[in-house]
Amino acid sequence: MTLASAALLTLPLSGAAFADAKPHPAATVKAPQPTHSNPAMPTVSQDQLAKGRDDARRFALKVSVDPDRVRAGDSYDVTIVAKGLRSGTAVVTSPEGKSYRVALSDGKATKTLTVPSKAKAGSKTVTVKVGNKTATASFDVLTLRPQRHRGHDGK
């Protein structure tokens, strides 16, 4: 027995197998056609998308204090400039540790703070956080010299 005859014996012998003697056309499979890119819609890779998100997070954060020398009990302005950012929220933290939320408008904001009247003289730092960036600005606190009380006679 040959291999071909053995294969024929293993085929199921149903009436349908022999009744359909007409040859059928072979099924055709289409190869995928290359897509044509639309010039108005360029193809963007996942890496490029991630880079675009990173670029959106890139901005320059600057903070300043005016005046840079403040007497205990007086106020000062903290100016925030987030160049490259149109809106958002800044968190200003005073040297005493109090936090304040400030809305940015066109990437800018100002917050007025007051030095406590019993603050010690010396350099103080204000911290500002916008998104994942942090910036600081320093200023000096001055205290009033205690005035000597003169006696009733003006001496």
Describe the protein.
16% of the residues lie in helices and 38% in strands. It is an alpha+beta fold and 155 residues long. It has three helices and eight strands; from the N terminus they run αααββββββββ.
The counted number of beta strands is 8
* Helix proportion range: 10-25%
Span of the ends, CA to CA: 140 Å
What percentage of the residues does DSSP assign to strands (E)? 35-45%
Structural class: alpha+beta
Radius of gyration from CA coordinates:
39 Å
Global shape:
elongated
Main sheet properties: 5 strands, mixed
Q: How many individual helices?
A: 3
- Secondary-structure element pattern, one letter each: HHHEEEEEEEE
Give unreliable regions as ranges. 35-56
Short note summarizing the structure:
This protein has 155 residues and is α+β, with helices and mostly antiparallel strands. It has helices spanning 3-10, 15-19, 46-57, and strands at 60-66, 69-71, 75-83, 87-93, 99-105, 108-114, 122-130, 133-142.
What keyword list fits this structure?
single chain, 155 residues, alpha+beta, elongated
